[in-house]
Amino acid sequence: MHAITDADFREFVRGVQELALRAYPNPERVDCPGLNVLREVAGQSRPSAHPAFHSHIVECSPCIAQMLAERTGIQAQRQARRRMLLGLAAGVCLAALPSGLWFTHRAAPLSRDQLASARDIPEMPIDLRPYSPTRSDSMLSTKPPIVVPRRRVKLKLYLAPGAPLGMYEIRVLTNDLQAMRSQQSAAVLSDEVTFMPVAVDLTDLRPGDYVLALRPAREGEEWQTFPLIVRSP
Q1: Which of 59, 91, 148, 227 to pair with 207, CA 20 to 30 A apart?
Q2: Strands (DSSP E) along the chain, which ranges?
Q3: Domain 94-231 coded CATH 3.60.15.10
Q4: What local confidence, expressed as pLDDT, does residue 17 receive?
């Protein structure tokens, strides 16, 4: 009998999570306890000990998905605080921002004019499902790069089926892996499709080839990378 590796265990956990997220549909959200209760359950060291977990959440796929997203976000925030306190993330600290704000290498806050202009920018869908890591390298090599304009953009990243929900780390890298943009954003499930809203200001990047990298914001997860081209509008 072969030993169970960490990768085997993570794949098993993903499979169980995927089953739970689809096994108990509740599109009308009947008897759902609400976001505040789900956040309370997610913040506990043992969520299964909360009364709402057994009375409803464990038999409601939308609540399971939302609780997992909240718990992943809480863990990501705690890890980010620890990294900052230890000084290990100097220069590459990740700020968890709402999806409507730009992620940037500058620490300066956005002005009111910038926030107002952000609301007027249309959303740009990016389908990452053809780049699923379950596909062969030969299939991946035939896929065209992702092309985005050199300006402020709102991206809606569609993730592969079964992708974990919750907080993700996202980076735009040069080909020599220098981070030009870094942020966190949350992947959510809607109508059985997993997507992640990301807004980014690319106006000061040079047109050319880059790399889009993302991974779930938790220990042991590997980066997924996608070819990215930034073009002048």
Answers
A1: 91
A2: 123-127, 146-149, 152-158, 166-173, 179-190, 193-201, 208-216, 224-231
A3: no
A4: 65
